[in-house]
What does this fold into?
Amino acid sequence: MKIPPEVKCFRNYAKYDPSKFCDDLRNVDWNANENSHDETNVNNVCVDNAWSRFKAIFLQVADRHAPFIQKRVRGRDCPWITGQIKREICHRDFLLKKARKSKLDEDWLAFRTVRNRVSNIVRRAKQTYNKKLIKDHPDDSKTFWKTMKKILLGEKKSSVIKNIQVDGKLCTNNKKIANAFNMFFTSAVTRLRQSLDLGSNARKFTHVVNHSLPDFKFKMVDESFTLNALRQLKTNKSGGLDDISPRLLKDAAEVISKPLTQIINASLSQGIVPHEWKHARVTPLFKKGVSTDLDNYRPISVLPVVSKLLERAVHHQLYSFCNEHKLLSPFQCGFRSNHSTEFAAVAFSDYVRRGMDQGLLTGAVFIDLRKAFDSVDHDLLISKLQSYGLKNIELNWFKSYLLDRKQVVRIGTETSDYCTITSGVPQGSILGPLLFVLFINDLPNVLTKCRILMYADDTVMYFSAADSQVIADTLTNELLLVNKWLIDNNLFMHEGKTECMLFGTGPKLALSTSFSIAIDGKALNRVSEYKYLGIVLDASLTWNAHVDYLIGKVRKRLAMLGRIRKNINMYTAGTVYTSFVLPILDYCDTVWSCCGSVNTDKLEKLQRRAARIIMHLGSSEKALNFLGYVTLEKRRKSHVCNLVKKCLSNRCPQFFMNYFNYNRDILPRKTRSSDKLRLPTVRLECTKKAFFYHGCVIFNQNF
It folds into this structure.
């Protein structure tokens, strides 16, 4: 399907020269923004005025070197078709008409000759186009995947919003559509509260303040910090409402780092965030369903690029403070260094395996939250920040950062009116994830018996016992405490998507007669499989369901690779496999590395098929040998070994420290096995598949 044309506004870099652009900026009088390290001076600088002056000067120079232009971009379903190829196609079509009309052999021969030449030209042009697209984004997985979709016919979806249902009527006016989207997005949490019949006020946070905790204090940043942050900007990212692109900022880094440093330091010293840095441009992104329904779109927010410099400075200081004083919950694995989904999934599966070895069942409740990041109550978050040592100017800075945030929605060339954002952490921000983690940081404190693991808002609570009824009663009581905490904190549990599951060995599960967990009189859906952090868990951790899930996903991508193979060379095909197929097979494979011989063979067949596609060979063995691919089983063992080494070097969450022990730490005298890891004592064969046991075996085999 051909993509409809649209009008786009963008900077014209046709005559842009970075060196001349920087020379013009050097000739600008930045005197009003000097003395960035003079604290008295930054305290006297009006932050908003300083930013307005910087923006006016910068844009004035930028508009001379890379002015904005509006252009009608035509929808092209075959972007590799050049003007020369079009002329060849027209000539081919002319010869076809001539041959049909004359029916002469020489005319048909002339047509076939040109037809074959055109086919070869188009094939080569498409191949060259695809190679360039893939070559331009070899390491950026997100962009690379978008590129692959462009290559496939039928994968491209139009981003143009033609009409939307507004108040029961089909609206085609872009301004009205933009306003409708903005009102819909900013009122989403309010509508959710009304639908659940909940009050509008959260409780006052009553966390006990640690008086021994020192106050968090901002440190002024130096020019080198700003310079490095500017140099690290990704030029392919969109700019915000200030019309300042990351490309221009990066090119001018050495010139503008000094005035920007003063603005950042003025913000930190006064506790004020420039108002324009809190304004977001939102683009509705279609998900699925009926394209005229507002509910089938999700907002993508873009903040001013310069605001990320300030956020990066604050994030670094606040995160370092939290780590230094151990403020973050040890059960939170999201948005933290040396933490990952892999560690969370391994911790949960190992706990279940230990329970199996002791003859216990493990019950789990996988909690789903509705619009968790958008529902964060600002007043409550500020109270929690205060309990973590933020006071005075620092606390005022976060108040300024969170409050009076606004957004607009842009449809085509039309922009909606501003709407105020009354809740949530800023989408698309650097600080947002850390603030959310701090907001739910005290959730584990309400539990008395159950364990909990969190990856951002993905939460699982679990408990082990011999009797399934004891597990159900315990989880039910603990879930009531969690739900109360959620209500008190203005967060909403999605009862329809919150599910429970019972884990154990096959014989134990067969003997368990009842397992039901309810909340507010409604029984949770009990499942036999659950996708947790991208891994499909089954009741006995056989990994059969997960391997089947992987096979289905990989087959689709291999089919895609087969479709485009004729248009790309062997090297590019190999890049597609290692970038888009292999990561699926590698993801968290330390959790399910012992998946059984049958499942292992199924997975190896996929790699053999991939090798045949890449090499255009019928023999898998020859293809694998030429490409030098090791088996997936060897890759999994290597990943297990690497994760064990992370645990041994304490590059892991707190609950993985001292997870493994050397024999030399336990044995009274040195032996040949002193440098080996001590194997835990287990009863069941299925427990030997756990990371805490299997990891020792693999590590000892390699070291």
Remarks:
- The two ends are 57 Å apart (CA to CA).
